[in-house]
Amino acid sequence: MANKAIFLCNDASVIERVYDAQTRAAISSLCELDETVYSKADVLADPAFFFDVEIAFSSWQMPVFTEEEIKACFPSLKCVFYGAGSVQFFARPFLACGVKVFSAWAANAVPVAEMTVAEIILANKGFFLSSRVFHKAGKPEATKVFSICQGNYGETVGIIGAGMIGKLVINMLKSYYLKLLVFDPFLSDADADALGVEKCSLERLFSESFVVSNHLANNAQTVGMLNYELFKLMRENAVFLNTGRGAQVVEDDLVRILREREDLTALLDVTYPEPPVEGHPFYTLDNCLLTPHIAGSAGDEVVRMAEYMIEEFKLHVAGQPCQYEVSLEMLKTMA
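RE: above sequence
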């Protein structure tokens, strides 16, 4: 019980949502937990108060610190347990200072994959296009659209990125008879065989898939990777689905193709910036459906992320190998 732990977050309400009473009690049983939620302003206002802190628990709204600030304020810090998904925005300075970072990306991946699979299944049935046509032209025209959809037996689905979420989506789709094409330069042939997918180029994936779902890692190498040259290859009535990150899409190019081809549908849970700026065409295009980044954990699902971090903390305390520790190398390919 020697480890002193705190909650580190710029929004106390986030911690209250993610770390419920049961999870806080579990943490307290393993260490000396100060249940106050401290923001970056709190830390910088009284750095000496945090000199003996060894463990930090956090979630969304995790403060971003520089290496100099970490060394000055957290000389004893050993670990950050992040009860949320991507750590790209804050992790590197901590890792550079020798602080271990753990992420609940696997927990947050579950609801994202669930929503993605639900939208893929609906898309293959022609749900989004036929609904749009029904409203504009009536049932007979909508039925024509439905009649040319192949459904969920033998249809081709393209998965861009086979990281944690991409793999979950692939495994969840195994209960359907679908052909899965995957683009991921880091996916080995052996792993592709084990997943039951076929690796291919982006060009082939866009041209053959009825649904294209983006799960690319969010890094400098993937920014703007999905552009007009790819979108124009999409099949008639095809669907582009993005529950990953918006920065991988050249959004002007997506707007262009959606205007040129009313048969296509874009389902965007993420954009860049997020939300789109006022007056952006995404708001008015009939064939673009926006949702406010709802694929991630919501409601009681957020507690799952805290539970994953508690299990990681237990392994850390016991000196056993942890499952979700993040390294600098991993950040090159993680979402």
